Structure formats: C-alpha cells, structure tokens
Amino acid sequence: MRIDILTVLPKLLESPFNDSIMKRAQEKGHAEIHIHNIRDYSTHRQKSVDDYQYGGGAGMVMTIQPIADCIEKLQAERTYDELIYMTPDGELLEQSHCNAFSLKKNILILCGHYKGVDQRIRDLFITKEISIGSYVLSGGELGAAVLVDAVVRLIPGVLNDETSALTDSFQDGLLAPPVYTRPEDYNGHKVPEVLLSGHSANIDEWRNEQSIIRTKERRPDLLD
Ligand code: ADE
Description:
By secondary structure, the chain is of the alpha/beta class. The chain folds into two domains: 2-152, Alpha/beta knot (3-Layer(aba) Sandwich); 169-223, tRNA(m1g37)methyltransferase, domain 2 (Trp Operon Repressor, Chain A, Orthogonal Bundle). Helix content is 30%, strand content 19%. The strands form three sheets. The chain has a five-stranded parallel sheet. It binds adenine (ADE). Residues 86-88, 112, 131-133, 135-137, 139-140, 143 line the site of adenine.
C-alpha cells in the first residue's frame, strides 16, 4: 500500500512513522509512506501557502494553487483509491474506516492548517473527510498519523502475530477483555483463576463475557 501525505509541516510527521511497527511495515515493503511539503509547490514569490478569507474574519485559509498542483502531479503518476482530508468537521474515524482503507492500494491524505483549505479543494479532489475526534487540533498532521497507524497495522504481514489485529477492541464490535502477565500475585491482587487453568474453552468464554461486561459499562453505544 502507498500513502502520500500532503502537509505544510512535514517535520511533524517524521517520528510517528520511523519507529516500531510503522517503521517495520515500511522496511518489510508492506507500506510506502511519502510526505510532501505543500510549500514546495507554491508558485508564489515568497512560497506562501495561505491567504486571508473572503468575507473577512480571523484566520488564514490554505490556497488552492500549491495543493492542487501537488495533487495533480501525484495523480498523473498513479490513481488514488481515496483522497482523504483531515478536518474536525469530517466523519468520525471508526475501525470500519480503517479496515476499508487498509484494503486500498493508493491513498492520499491532505492535512489542513489555519482555518482549513479553500472549499474548492474539498469539492474538486477530496473523496473522504475524516475527523479523529470532537475537538480541534492545530492541524491535520496528528490526525493523519493516527489514521495511518490504525490502517497500516491492519495490512496482512505487518503484525508479527497475525491474529492480534483480529482480537483488538472494536474488531468484533466489542471492547477487548482485560489482560494479565506475570506475576500471578501482585501484593495480593491475583490473576483470575481461569486464565491459569490451561482450559482454552473456559478462557475463551471468560474473555467473551469480560468483553461484553466492559462494552456494556464503557461503550453501550457499540451494543445497539
Ligand atoms: N484537524 C484539526 N482538528 C482535527 C480533528 N479533530 N480531526 C482531524 N483533523 C483535524
């Protein structure tokens, strides 16, 4: 899978993809992540990428020209299955979006800044608008990092234990059950007996019950 990310702050995206699972996914050839600095595409003499908004009001708007030129250059090289704009007024990111994106070949992610991008960029190019939560970030970069992480770990072969993505919270519509490791007894706080029993059917049943209890308590909306 190839992911192209368009940003005015490329440095913000250096570290999230250069460690741990994201790094390994790229080294193993499962994912190719390309970061593009929108400013490099500006034809303005001072390389500006924003301007005052029509109608007045505080805050700058990202201009069409550098973004359109960057997208059109990339589109001339390959077809994108999805062009995603990170924005607080987008669809709330869900596991189902991540599952769907992880099956795509090429996706492009545009990070907004300031007051966002000129609406015509959204109208002309964007196929999906995504928010990572009901709060406003300084820009779309951290949201893009969240989205890419959640998607890339689902690509077959990325996780060492192939089944572990399947047992994540949300994958079966339930939150994951509690997990324990050594020691068996921490200051009198013991690991549930069933997990030490070696009886896999009982363990599965306990985990499923715990998932349901946890989901009822914390995310009853998931059970609707
Ligand atoms: N840009 C600013 N806030 C955002 C959010 N909540 N989700 C995605 N992109 C954003």
